[in-house]
Specification:
Blueprint lengths: L29 H4 L4 H11 L5 H9 L11 H4 L19 E9 L5 H19 L21 E6 L1 H6 L30 E7 L2 H15 L3 E10 L32 H5 L20 H4 L8 E10 L1 H4 L4 H8 L36 H4 L11 E2 L2 E7 L5 E11 L6 H9 L8 E11 L11 H4 L2
Antiparallel strand pairs: 1-3, 1-4, 2-3, 5-8, 5-9, 6-8, 7-8
């Protein structure tokens, strides 16, 4: 975890409106046959809004389903576009439900099979993100729901390039991550040829996408590992605010924002400058050569870490001790040096005893970009809870996902510094890891990864 964290809660300006085409309908949709199409339900959502207040919610909980159609809320009608300069699920506001799944290509499968698979996956993602059923074998799990901010994001692991004969196109930035002292990694739940990130604001919509992606893999690829996560649901608080993690800490205050002047430079691989010399070390060379080959233009690199929180140990600490570990107040996320959540942390401020108010090993101090040569990442994690062991110890923590133009200048230097003295390290354990090259978005008529697989 770090002080550069989960994107802030949605505001009306950050959300996508309902999809268009309200008069179109799917002939296989039962709601359409009953006289109102799923698309028309979406079209009424914005005008209807939330239909239950506090009393209505309580009454509705125990009531039996009625035959009358209830319009979708704005939550269900929000749609994220599949096609674009960047893949969805990177700058998209973090959703309340997430699935991460890695695949390995099947024995004998290569570039041809991978190409066909990415075509299928891209078509399925495009349809589901628009609130449409999957083309084949749709399970009807999400039949009654809108798009619910669904995003499906695809990436390639280090091993993918050897399996497909594309070693010459493997980015240097995809070299395996170094070992860290906090690692207790399970290799079976790490890495993989292909990686898919799914996020949605409805659990059934998210599962529907997960199942469709897994079915699409067919005989070309098999699941290597899969993880499930969650976040606070939009609208769960009285006003938009930064979410909390399972330690109860406000988590996400200093995440880079798309409005920042240097956001794209830090997070996305730039497009190739045709006037740049071919020598990557020559003066004036475009940074694209350092971050990846041309097919990675407008893409990003995702680091995934399953970080278990040792909650029994953490929860024994008094609140003040927890705040010293993080460097921020637990109540509102403000720095211990004073102010509000967004106040700049004063790293030099001392108390009456002459000691630093923000401890030297506080997590928020160590992870600040200005303490790490400007290293910055966009983090879109999900919390997870996978039950309790025989002693009642929770298997819970953070599915850490961070995005950067180059992990060697983003995640790696920050994690190395955390290794050397982060107060939080005794309360967490890194149990799985992965690094994936996530290409730019697919244009209309393209599939994700086409410039790599057909280049």
């Amino acid at each position: 975890m770090s002080d550069q964290s989960i994107p802030e809660a949605r505001t009306p300006e950050e959300t996508h409106g309902p999809p268009g085409g309200a008069d179109s309908h799917d002939p296989t949709d039962t709601t359409a046959r009953e006289g109102i199409s799923r698309r028309r339900l979406l079209g009424t959502a914005g005008a209807t809004g939330l239909v239950l207040g506090a009393a209505g919610g309580a009454a509705g909980y125990a009531a039996a389903p009625t035959s009358a159609a209830t319009p979708l809320t704005t939550l269900g009608s929000e749609q994220v576009m599949f096609h674009g300069k960047h893949q969805p699920g990177i700058t998209t506001p973090v959703q309340s439900r997430g699935h991460l799944v890695a695949f390995d290509l099947a024995a004998g499968a290569g570039r041809k099979e991978a190409t066909a698979l990415l075509r299928r996956w891209s078509d399925t993602a495009r349809r589901l993100m628009a609130g449409e059923p999957a083309r084949d074998r749709d399970t009807s799990v999400a039949r009654d729901a809108g798009p619910s901010s669904l995003t499906v994001t695809f990436g390639f692991g280090h091993s993918f390039f050897g399996r497909t004969g594309l070693e010459g196109q493997r980015p240097v930035s995809l070299d395996p991550l170094p070992d860290f002292s906090s690692d207790h990694l399970d290799k079976k739940r790490s890495n993989g040829d292909l990686w898919v990130q799914i996020g949605a604001d409805d659990a059934l919509v998210a599962f529907h996408a997960l199942r469709a992606i897994q079915q699409d893999a067919g005989s070309a690829a098999r699941v290597r590992w899969q993880m499930n996560g969650f976040n606070r649901a939009p609208g769960a608080t009285a006003h938009p605010m930064t979410t909390r993690n399972l330690m109860g800490q406000v988590d996400g205050t200093r995440n880079p924002k798309p409005a920042d002047a240097d956001f794209d430079q830090r997070i996305f691989v730039p497009e190739k400058n045709p006037e740049s010399p071919e020598d990557p070390h020559a003066p004036g060379t475009n940074e694209e050569y350092q971050n990846g080959p041309a097919w990675m233009a407008n893409g990003s690199y995702a680091v995934i870490r399953r970080i278990r929180m040792l909650l029994d140990d953490w929860e024994k600490l008094p609140t003040r001790a927890q705040e010293d570990v993080i460097g921020r107040r637990k109540s509102d996320g403000a720095p211990l040096s004073g102010g509000t959540e967004t106040t700049e942390m004063d790293l030099e401020k001392t108390g009456k005893d002459g000691n630093l108010i923000v401890p030297i090993n506080a997590h928020a101090r160590i992870t600040r970009p200005d303490q790490n040569g400007g290293a910055a990442m966009v983090r879109r994690p999900f919390s997870y809870h996978d039950g309790f062991d025989a002693d009642g110890v929770p298997d819970a923590g953070l599915l850490f996902i961070c995005w950067q133009a180059d992990p060697l200048r983003g995640f790696v230097p920050v994690q190395r510094k955390l290794d050397r003295g982060d107060a939080l390290s005794q309360f967490i354990r890194h149990e799985a890891s992965g690094l994936f090259a996530v290409p730019g978005g697919a244009a209309e008529g393209e599939y994700v990864g086409q410039r790599l697989l057909e280049g």
